[in-house]
Amino acid sequence: MKFRTSPPSFHNETRYAVLMSTDGASFTITLPPESAPQTPLVFASPHSGQTYPDDMGAVEGLSRSSLKSAEDALVGTLVRAGPDHGTPLIEARIGRAYLDLNRDPAELDPSLIDDVEGPVGAKTRAGYGLIPRLTGDGLPLYDRRLSRAEAEARIRTAHTPYHDALAEMMARTHGRCGRAVLIDWHSMPARAVGAEVVLGDRHGTSCRSRLTRRLRDLFEGLGWRVALNHPYAGGWSTQVWGRPEDGYEAIQIELSRKLYLDEATQTPNAAHGATAKALNRVIAALCREDWADGSRL
Question: Pfam families, from UniProt (predicted)?
Answer without folding.
Answer: FGase
